[in-house]
Amino acid sequence: MSRPRRARVPVTATLLTLGLAAATLVGVPAAQAAPAVQAAPVAAPEAAADEPFSVLVFSKTAGFRHDSIPTGIAAIQQLGAANGFTVDTTEDGAAFTDENLARYRVVVWLSTTGDVLAPDQQAAFERYIRAGGGYAGIHAASDTEYSWAWYGDLVGAHFASHPANQQATVKVEDHAHPSTAELPERWSRFDEWYNYQSNPRGDVHVLATLDETSYSPGAGAMGHDHPIAWCQDFDGGRAWYTGGGHTRESYAEPQFLAHLLGGIRTAAGVQDADCGASLTESFEKVALDSNTSNPMELDVAPDGRVFYIERDGRVQIVKPDTGSTVTALDLDVFTGKAPEMRIRKAVAAVLTGLVLAFLAAAPATAHSGKLKLTVAGDGAGGVTIQAAYADGHRLDKLVRLTLTAAGSGGRTVGPLQLEPAAEGQGSYTTGPILSPGTWTVRVTAPAPHSGAATAKVRARAPQTPSLAPVARDVSPARADRSTGDGAAPGWWRPVAVGVAVLLVVALTAPVLGRLRRGRS
């Protein structure tokens, strides 16, 4: 059945055209049991000056019976004596009549289990809540009345499982609520920690969650969002629940007692509490400006005004007092596809290629122990590497090839595994190098003639973005040529590039002129 609730004033959050995302609090996991020992005297929190009221503690069980129930009753009675409210107790469902329930501001369900009320008693309790009564559930109150849908909505979530009793950390999410106001942000305590059949967040206001990384939650773990205490305005009344309270020792802990006192008092309605702050239904999407064109950036001023800028250069202000949008500034921005810019980049690329064409390095040779390394090439067609041993033996295999860019901001390419094109051949050609500039080539040879050598090669502008090494047979005669492709560096290449640049400039000059005249 749908969950009836008290009407609330919606909290509005603002977003441009696309609306708002509702924020929610993160919940804490439930607790487990502690060893049974004699309960210590209860240290009640300082009393608050309010009109007296009455509390009914209901502890009937039709399933598992917690041995902490008597200790819990005694603790609540001591809280009442110290804080100005009277406490009656019962395990008789016959106490749930309209006349009897009207005597109490709140009914505390203390570790009840199973089906504890007859249908007419259930109906009386529903009428009591709808008339403005309060409900406070402790621990196994969530292990109660599984077939009573209204009660399931009232308690918030039903028990599913629990691991062994252990120490765990409770993360307090709301320090404004009286039941969590005196608790530390991370509250470490020993208890029996419940896993629930569903996560109530969004339907209830989560006050605290369990940090499942601080204990072993077992097979029923709820994950990072594990609510353990929450409250809600429900069907005309008030509801508060805590998953703690399995152990007798719980009712001797000053912080747990403060937690209980705040829950009882707020459920009774004698102390104000906001239990709708994080509910999904408490938020409303409001479009500030539905006549936007293409907003790019947005910011909110301390006075509530919303500033955003359109792609066409208009700086807009949404005024919260009137709901109107005004243009504060109109910036001169360029919104075209920039053909002139593309032409300039093309010319620059041709000029760069012309300069780099003269930078092809002569073969570089390096010796390191038994290994001799010869590197040649311009990077555009790959780098040719010839390695041999000083004693004249061919190098059958290169183990590692590392290319390192020279200078600051350089990067390493590799290590790359290279295999020879044929047995006994010691020449290899890498794929094109992405970035022009000076590169350091280091080759390491395997046993039995282990050694390493380093040489430098200057790379031209790349022709393809691939860095994958390609092994091929390159003769020593070809490898000694500076171009690395077997062809001598002809004098005509720089001339051809220069002619190409002149042609590009001649063809683009009229276009650039027309563009300038069109913008003026």
UniProtKB/TrEMBL annotation:
Stretch forming the signal peptide: 1-33
Chain ranges of the ThuA-like domain: 55-265
Ranges where the record places region Disordered: 453-488
Pfam families linked: ThuA
Keywords from the named record: Membrane, Signal, Transmembrane, Transmembrane helix
Residue spans crossing the bilayer: 491-512
Ubl conjugation found in the keyword field: no
PANTHER family: GALACTOSE-BINDING DOMAIN-LIKE SUPERFAMILY PROTEIN (PTHR40469:SF2), SECRETED GLYCOSYL HYDROLASE (PTHR40469)
Protein name, per record: ThuA domain-containing protein
